[in-house]
Amino acid sequence: MMGTLATVLAGKKIPTFGDRFRADAEGDIEDEGGVMRIARIRVRYTLKCPPGKAGEAKEAMESYITRCPAAMSVRGCISLEDSLEVSELAG
């Protein structure tokens, strides 16, 4: 998921190298009739973007998931939750 979002951001000329882009993920595993399964995945993205690009970053966040092969493969089976904290670098 992170790679797909980085690709969409790159298309908007928002770099994601070094310490500018980070993802923290966690999930919940549940017992369903003696079988353990991943029930939820939460991903919190943090992005430091160039001045004036925060709106475009939020736009990318709203659309990237449908372009992500991994997300589209498990969507419907595993609940996916994502969020973006974006800040603009000093210009």
Would you write up a description of this structure?
- This protein has a single domain (2-88), classed as GMP Synthetase, Chain A, domain 3, CATH 3.30.300.20.
- The protein has 91 residues and is an alpha+beta fold.
- The model has no long low-confidence stretch (mean pLDDT 96).
- It has three helices and three strands.
- The chain has a three-stranded mixed β-sheet with strand order 1-2-3, with helices on one face.
- The chain has helices at residues 2-11, 54-63, 69-74, and strands at 21-32, 35-49, 79-88.
- The protein is elongated, with a radius of gyration of 15 Å.
Notable traits:
single chain, 41% strand, 91 residues, 3 helices, alpha+beta, elongated
List the helices and strands and how they pair.
Layout lengths: L1 H10 L9 E12 L2 E15 L4 H10 L5 H6 L4 E10 L3
Parallel strand pairs: 2-3
Antiparallel strand pairs: 1-2
Note the main sheet. Answer: 3 strands, mixed
- Sheet-strand content, in percent, reads 35-45%
Report the principal-axis shape: elongated
Structural class: alpha+beta
Helix content: 25-40%
How would you state the average pLDDT, rounded? 96
Using the coordinates shown, work out and report the CATH topology: GMP Synthetase, Chain A, domain 3
The CATH fourth-level homologous superfamily? K homology (KH) domain
Order of helices and strands: HEEHHE
Total separate domains: 1
CATH class: Alpha Beta
What spatial order of strands do you see in the largest sheet? Answer: 1-2-3
Distance between the termini: 29 Å
> In the CATH hierarchy, what is the architecture at level 2?
2-Layer Sandwich
